[in-house]
Amino acid sequence: xxGLTLKHLRYFxxxxxxxxxxxxxxxxxxxxxxxxxxxxxxxxxxxxPLVERTSRQVRLTALGExxxxxxxxxxxxxxxxxxxVRSSTEALTGRLRLGVIHTNAPYLLPGIAQALAKAHxxxxxxxxxxxxxxxxxxxTLIPEIAVPFEARAAGVHIARFKNxxxxxxxxxxxxxTTPMAEQLxxxxxxxxxxxxxxxxxxxxxxx
Length: 207
Fold this sequence. Notes:
- This protein has 207 residues and is mostly helical.
- The protein has two domains: 6-87, Orthogonal Bundle (Arc Repressor Mutant, subunit A), CATH 1.10.10.10; 105-205, no CATH class.
- Helix content is 57%, strand content 3%.
- It has a two-stranded antiparallel ribbon with strand order 1-2.
- Helix 1 (6-18) crosses helix 2 (21-28) and helix 1 (6-18) packs across helix 3.
- The longest helix has 26 residues, at 62-87.
- The protein starts with 5 loop residues before the first helix and ends with a helix.
């Protein structure tokens, strides 16, 4: 199968897991047409259908069932190779999946994040960056809307920009052909009003 890539396998695995092109494309962070093209390319390389498409659902063919089993084994092996490479260095790098039950997470994760940040400094999430600042490790920038949540949790000092304040625009994106345009317009207004209220709250709490 000339041209077969890990991307083809990952996309097919996502489709086999979700049995829905929309959900699978969301998992892969690509558009639904792009996912469909990748699956068709894979089927062309295989020389046989891997999925049965209907107007309501997606089903794996018999070959698709066997193919996804091998696909998952390959993807797991590739991930193990990645772990092997990461383990060859002293630094803890790359993606780390850590599962914690929700009743313990708020009490354990901040401390774990601080300890990891000290032992293995690297880029991470906004909340972790703020926790690192609270632990005395440098400075960071955070969006104004996040200040009440992050500053209170980490106990950090907030300093505002005096001039040339950085700004960004956040928008709600929808398909032009969506039948839910009116409902999404209502959601857009709710988000807009909530954002304005949050910013006003920050200005009041942190003048």
